[in-house]
Amino acid sequence: MSSNETPEGARWLLLIHQLPAKPAYARVKIWRRLKGLGAVTAKNSVYALPANAETREDFAWLVREIAELGGEAFVCEALLVDGIGDAEVQALFDAARDEDYAEVSATARELATRHSGADLAAQAARLRKQLDEIVAIDFFGADGREPAEGLVSGLEAGLQKEEDIVTMTEAKAASGPLKNRVWVTRQGVQIDRIASAWLIRRFIDQAARFKFVPGTGYSAEPGELRFDMFEGEFTHRGDRCTFEVLLADAKLDDPALTAIGEIIHDIDLKDGKYGREEAAGVRSLVAGIASSHNDDTQRLDRGAVLLDDLYRSFAGKQGGK
Length: 321
Hints:
Blueprint: E1 11-18, H1 25-37, E2 40-43, E3 46-50, H2 53-68, E4 72-79, H3 86-112, H4 120-136, H5 145-159, H6 168-175, E5 182-186, H7 191-204, E6 209-213, E7 224-226, H8 242-249, H9 255-269, H10 279-292, H11 296-319
Parallel strand pairs: 5-6, 5-7
Antiparallel strand pairs: 1-3, 1-4, 2-3
Helix pairs in contact: 1-2, 3-4, 3-5, 4-5, 7-8, 7-11, 9-10, 9-11, 10-11
């Protein structure tokens, strides 16, 4: 589910078309064009895009192509009134992009296992191009973007034989302590953002103030630090989630926090890297918090109670050894 909320009264473009049975390739050609534009199926032969100048032009050219193939098509601009709602249409876009991002992530993980190969750099470059093309049609900032970005960036960094990824974080950390800051993240917080905010306030910056913004198009103000969002100072790197990145950058060598980081990783990246048995239970509890509270501050507060208990549990096990 995307972190961005669709405003009520959003307008959509609907392409309604019909193609002849022959030539057979026409359907495949138009389907590929629709997929490339990022359109989703609203109903049979009815495809939707968010209404703006660029998408209007895209659909206008497609109507012309359909006509040249012997078909019929027209475009209308719609305001959804009954039946399917704006949020449901947005969910269709987010699901489609998350599927695309998952494919990129899987390829990046597979390529990362290859430590050499003459064509590895070329494959990584193609994967970056594929990712950029998906981002261009990710109209609402689907959740799969951050893991995919991190995995592709990590692959590129490995190819350059860098021991670590140089980020804006290091420059900011060198110029001043991570204290009394405004920490910015995407609206609609979920597991990685909830856990990262808890880690920040509990172990990094006890005076932290949190600000919630749209997932795309936000420019940080002076003194702000962004986490778990595109181009953020603290966000996914390689196959590490934001919580793990914060642990490493803040040099928090705490076995209990490491254990929590492994749980957050398994829930957020869904790759089963650590196989933590606690992940399913924590995932259900956080999903319950998210469904019960629309306000992001409330989600952080409720999540903090859960994570405090989890931390005490792991810390107690360590002390009992």
